[in-house]
Specification:
Blueprint lengths: L1 E6 L11 H8 L4 E6 L12 E2 L9 E2 L1 H10 L5 E11 L2 H7 L4 E6 L7 H7 L2 E4 L9 H13 L8 H5 L18 E2 L2 E2 L2 H4 L3 H19 L1 H4 L6 H17 L2
Parallel strand pairs: 1-2, 1-6, 5-6, 5-7
Antiparallel strand pairs: 3-4, 8-9
The structure holds adenine.
Adenine binds next to strand 5.
Length: about 240
């Protein structure tokens, strides 16, 4: 997948050289094409923004430099503008975007970009949450990290993706590692039992229970199988019994 990034601060994307995304870049599964918007300034001051028509606070990114930058990305990619006015990004959207060969991310700053760019060149507007960031760059990093995880070849074994929280609308359950007893708190017995079938069932129940506790909004949309319902009921009964 090729990802073009149009930004005033392309350096922010350097953080993506680490970890899973960094590996995907070095294996050439994804390639980042950083386009510095400042290079497309049309004036002698090197600026790419201007005051808003009609007055008001702040500055708006001008259409001409953005248009030139978009032309450089050859015009056949899926263009996303990162903005708090966009559709909320989630795992479903991430999976959908991971199937596209080439995307272009426009990272805004200040009071946003000229509306005519959005109307004529942007395929979709995406927000990463109901809060305002200083610009779209960090949101862009979030999208790239998440989308990369959903590209088949990126996570070595398919299972690590399937284990991700939200990959099937559920949260990931609890994880434990050595020691067995940490400050008096023990690892659940079943995880030490070596009984793989029971461990698998515990993981299903624990994931459902975690989702129900922490994200009732997600839980109510789950279509539980008969088996899952039984496992969850048994899990909850055990919690009540042990007085947790
Ligand atoms: N730019 C500023 N705030 C943002 C947000 N919440 N999501 C995406 N881009 C943004």
């Amino acid at each position: 997948m090729k990802i073009n990034i149009i930004s005033l601060f392309p350096e922010i994307f350097e953080s993506l050289q680490y970890g899973v995304v960094g590996k995907a870049i070095s294996k050439k599964i994804i390639s980042l094409n950083l386009v510095d918007l400042k290079e497309f300034s049309t004036n002698k001051y090197g600026s790419v923004d201007d005051t808003p028509y009609g007055g008001g606070e702040g500055m708006v990114i001008s259409p001409e430099p953005l248009h030139s930058a978009l032309k450089q990305t050859k015009g056949k990619s899926h263009v996303i503008y990162l903005t708090p006015q966009g559709e909320l990004f989630d795992q479903k959207k991430s999976k959908k975007l991971s199937k596209i060969d080439e995307i272009t991310l426009i990272c805004g700053r200040y009071e946003g970009i000229d509306q005519r760019i959005i109307d004529n060149f942007v395929d979709e507007e995406i927000s990463i949450g109901d809060y305002v960031l200083s610009g779209g760059e960090i949101a862009g990093c979030v999208l790239i990290d998440s989308i990369s995880r959903n590209i088949q070849e990126v996570l070595g074994n398919k299972e690590s993706l399937e284990n991700d929280s939200l990959s099937d609308g559920k949260l990931k359950g609890h994880s434990y590692t050595r020691p067995e007893n940490f400050l008096g708190a023990k690892v659940p017995d079943v995880l030490l039992s070596g009984n793989h079938a029971q461990i698998a069932e515990w993981r299903i129940a624990n994931s459902l229970w975690t989702t129900k506790q922490k994200r009732p909004d997600l839980f109510k949309d789950l279509q539980l199988s008969e088996k899952e319902m039984i496992l969850l009921r048994e899990y909850e009964a055990r919690i009540v019994k042990s007085g947790e």
